[in-house]
Amino acid sequence: LPGQILDQWFESEPLKATLATDAVIGAMASPHTPGSGYVLLHHVMGELEGRRGAWGYVAGGMGALSQAIARAAAAQGAHIFAEKAVCHVLLGTDGRAQGVVLQDGTEVRSKLVLSNASPQITFLELTPQEQLPKDFVQRIRQVDTRSPVTKINVAVDRLPSFLAAPNTRDGRPLPHHQCSIHLNCEGTHLLHQAFTEATCGHPSSRPMIELCIPSVLDPGLAPQGCHVVSLFTQYTPSVLAGGQPWDEQARNAYADTVFDCIEAYAPGFKASVIGRDILTPPDLERIFGLPGGNIFHGGMSLDQLYFARPAPSYSGYRSPIPSLYLCGSGAHPGGGVMGAAGRNAARVALEDFRRL
């Protein structure tokens, strides 16, 4: 339990609750859920520019990271087809993957196919079901993909000024504006309460909010004096109580709750808002192909990690289809912007390619 781990090291409840958010981030779990402590440790895995457990911001936004990977691949001779949806994986008479078929009917032939789509999309939508073992298909169908996350992107015409550390007269960014700001995290009991509401199908009345202002570090993201604010919030159930849809009314009602919470910490925030983009779990699934809206392609619980990710006997990036590999967050070691799954999968695929 993360609560026990944090109790051993810290006395301050606000500090413990703030750190506990990393135990439940992206997970339909509370700090009191057994096993959630792993996710806390997962978030300090690795290092950034020599600093262990550190996190960083990508200049230009997260898309810049994808573009950097694309440029590195293109420099090695890779051909990249953007905006080309894959219809299904092409199989030969011997059952091996031989490429992919695009939705416009184009066949792209290759000796190996690596998919960083989720296991659900890769194996349940893009692969002929008759070619897969039934127990494997059942296991992929049973992966827990519940997600509590609603992401809200906001454009504001001035920096938020927090009661705890008001802005200076010149309106320049202060140190806390360059960090991840946690709201509604004064105690772990608040996180548990927010979680409990969502398990009953109701968006949290006092959601956990991680507020980031990337334009403070990267001024090119917004016009001078204006800023973009990224809100990572939970808990919101994928399916609302009574089967109600996440329509515009439900979306806006939840966003208003989030904004009311921020207003209590930073009066004037609501008046500074120019526009907002609300992405509920169904939106995250529809737009980004995240099953259930889960940012990790599947829960990071102990029964879905290590040798069991995405399924027992298939944690080594190979799949039941020869020459088809899984290299995304649904593979070991799971989610997070670290590239570990892709690097490991590439090494396995390279090993097989040399044999071919």
Rg, nearest Å: 22 Å
Tally of discrete structural domains: 2
- Count of alpha/pi helices: 12
Q: What can be said about the biggest beta sheet? A: 5 strands, antiparallel
Q: Biggest sheet: strands side by side, in what order?
A: 8-9-10-7-11
Q: What is the typical, i.e. mean, pLDDT?
A: 93
How many beta-strand runs? Answer: 12
Distance between the termini: 46 Å
Beta-strand percentage?
A: 15-25%
The ordered string of helix (H) and strand (E) elements is HHHEEHEEEEHHEEHEHEHHEHEH
Percent in helix: 25-40%
Poorly predicted residue ranges? none
Tell me the structural class.
alpha+beta
Shape type: globular
Q: What order do the helices and strands come in, and which of them pair?
A:
Layout: H1 2-9, H2 13-24, H3 37-42, E1 47-48, E2 51-52, H4 62-75, E3 86-91, E4 97-102, E5 107-109, E6 113-115, H5 119-125, H6 134-142, E7 150-156, E8 181-183, H7 188-199, E9 208-212, H8 214-217, E10 227-234, H9 248-265, H10 269-272, E11 273-279, H11 281-288, E12 324-326, H12 340-355
Parallel strand pairs: 6-12
Antiparallel strand pairs: 1-2, 3-4, 4-5, 7-10, 7-11, 8-9, 9-10
Helix pairs in contact: 1-2
Family: Belongs to the carotenoid/retinoid oxidoreductase family.
Protein name: PYRD2 protein
InterPro entries: FAD/NAD-bd_sf
Which key terms come to mind for this protein?
single chain; 356 residues; alpha+beta; FAD/NAD(P)-binding domain; 2 domains; 5-stranded antiparallel sheet; 3-stranded antiparallel sheet; 12 strands; 33% helix; 15% strand; globular; FAD/NAD-bd_sf; PYRD2 protein
